[in-house]
Amino acid sequence: MSHRRPEMGILFARSLALLALLCLLLPCHGKLSTKFYAKSCPGVATIVRSAMAQAVAKEPRMGASIIRLFFHDCFVNGCDASILLDDTPTFTGEKNAGANANSVRGYEVIDAIKTQVEAACKGIVSCADIVALASRDAVNLLGGPTWNVQLGRKDSRTASQSAANANLPGPGSSAASLVSAFAVKGLSARDMTALSGAHTVGRARCLFFRGRIYTEPNINATFAAARQQTCPQSGGDGNLAPFDDQTPDAFDNAYFRNLMARRGLLHSDQELFNGGPTDAQVRKYSGNAGMFATDFAKAMVKMGGLMPAAGTPAEVRLNCRKVN
């Protein structure tokens, strides 16, 4: 049998060469690691943190926008920066999907961070990893928890507006549909409730909460009247209101206390405390800020682990808005 060993060695070498070639052509999704850039771009976390600190100091709402950007990326074919791709004459991306058009923002902040990261470590750090780091810093800069971000994602070379329309829960979602949408992604009802707590910061457009403040019975009357001042029954679709009018720019657990007082801004917010499966968890978070912070951080890591399907063409984009 010994005369076959050289042949086996040659076959093994060829197999390794073929695998290496496939990894160049297709993403070989390795395990994410908090140390992924420890040698190749050790300063990336500092660059992202500094840029996010400037962005949030200039406009606190931008922190909430970056958190949302991360969610809207990960929920559509995994955390692959597909949401950042601009439309072209031959390509329709996700930016104008129903849940994203005139709503998702912060693209320029990611562009600015990418420029700084590229100057420090050209072609090394993916846009998807920058968004993951930026969302962690956004939460922390607004007073919320921090966590170790798993890194090593690649950027998709494609995007899907239809997938964005199908996968992103809308403001009229029921509790059952929210639980189901998150379950499809491997996220529990507890994860979903914790992640919904991101609505302790940020603003929503009148278009998305008008129906609730004028027609729904499970709403605090004083709260509804206050919201109606800036959201008329017709017109003013783009007028903004804070999700949490108690501490609108502080990442805390006030969102859950608001739900218990029937002061949820969106229908989908109040659904979390409306006699359904998440009521008990809302009660716990409303009385235990530490539990919410811990669960939120864990759920963000879990959501950040959503990966594109095997074989999805990927790369490290040099410009987050277009493929290389």
Overview of this protein structure:
The structure is a single chain. With 324 residues, this protein is mainly alpha-helical. The protein folds into two domains: 43-168 and 307-315, Peroxidase, domain 1 (Orthogonal Bundle), CATH 1.10.520.10; 175-303, Peroxidase, domain 2. Helix content is 49%, strand content 3%. It is built from 14 helices and four strands. The chain has helices spanning 5-25, 44-58, 61-74, 107-120, 127-141, 161-167, 175-184, 189-196, 206-215, 221-228, 254-260, 267-270, 279-287, 289-304, and strands at 155-156, 203-205, 240-242, 314-315. The strands form two sheets. A two-stranded antiparallel sheet has the order 1-4. The protein has a two-stranded antiparallel sheet with strand order 2-3. The chain is globular and about 55 Å long. The protein starts with a helix and ends in a 9-residue tail after the last strand.
Q: How many DSSP-defined strands?
A: 4
User: Low-confidence stretches at least 5 residues in length (pLDDT < 50)?
Assistant: 15-28
Mean pLDDT: 92
Number of helices: 14
Total domain modules:
2
Going by helix content, strand content and strand pairing, the class is mainly alpha
The CATH architecture assignment of the largest domain turns out to be Orthogonal Bundle
Termini Cα gap: 49 Å
**Structural shape:** globular
The largest sheet, given as strand count, sense and whether it forms a barrel, is: 2 strands, antiparallel
Beta-strand content bin: under 5%
- Helices and strands, in N-to-C order? HHHHHEHHHEHHEHHHHE
What integer value in Å does the Rg equal?
22 Å
As for the CATH topology of the largest domain, it is Peroxidase, domain 1
**Could you name the CATH class of the largest domain?**
Mainly Alpha
Spatial sequence of strands, sheet with the most strands: 1-4
> Approximately how much helix is present in the residues?
40-55%
